[in-house]
Design goal:
By secondary structure, the protein is mainly α. The protein is built from ten helices and no strands. The chain has helices at residues 12-34, 37-44, 48-55, 58-70, 83-94, 103-111, 115-137, 142-163, 166-169, 173-188. It starts with 11 loop residues before the first helix and ends in an 18-residue tail after the last helix.
């Protein structure tokens, strides 16, 4: 009599990744309140019990989704030199018609009305894009200036991509990037530093 084949071991890392991938889609498309654990589990091909096992709760899963979405650089770059121009070009390109959607912004929009989710999103913004941009800026009030830069980015994304105001939707990407760089330069430039070449500002403007 032959021995029974050994039971196939569940790949924990693969299961966890499948849940996270499914959750990013559900939360981004439906928001925190409307994205159900059962729907996420069904999309991931697991049971709802597995989600609780790996993430503890829907809130715990959402916190990891926020980290997953806000962690990688999308608009904020990684180099201090030319930070405003880099950010402006990325924002213009990533909000152009047909561009790949910006999940961090969309996740924020979908979930901001839920107090529990909004607090997690706030921590995600501050801990990832906010900290990254503040680190590039340096100097006094870096956090405030970084978040002003993010506010400009979020507003541009909202009007150009979601609402589709005609002037922004039809704007040439290169020209839009030039205008955005001029607006971002004062808040991203280290206090006392000379304006970047081509920023359109002079020391007298300060």
């Amino acid at each position: 009599m032959s021995a029974a084949p050994p039971a196939r071991r569940r790949d924990a890392a693969t299961t966890r990744e499948a849940i996270l991938t499914a959750a990013v889609v559900e939360f981004t498309e439906h928001g925190y309140a409307r994205a159900g654990v059962r729907q996420i589990a069904e999309r991931a091909g697991v049971t709802a019990m597995m989600i609780n096992r790996y993430f503890g709760s829907k809130q715990g899963l959402f916190a990891e989704v926020v980290d997953r979405s806000f962690g990688p650089p999308t608009v904020v770059g990684t180099e201090r030199s030319g930070a405003a121009r880099t950010m402006a070009r990325a924002l213009a390109e990533r909000t152009a018609p047909g561009a790949e959607r910006l999940d961090p912004f969309l996740l924020t929009l979908r979930c901001a009305s839920d107090p529990e989710a909004a607090d997690i999103v706030r921590r995600g913004i501050e801990g990832h894009a906010g900290t990254r941009l503040a680190g590039l800026i340096g100097g006094p009030e870096a956090d405030v200036r970084a978040q002003l830069g993010l506010a400009l980015a979020a507003g541009t994304w909202l009007l150009r991509t979601v609402i589709g105001t005609s002037a922004l939707a039809e704007a040439d990407d290169a020209r839009l990037a030039e205008l955005l760089a001029g607006m971002l330069e004062p808040v991203t430039r280290e206090t006392g530093a000379a304006p970047s070449p081509g920023s359109g500002s002079t020391p007298a403007d300060d």
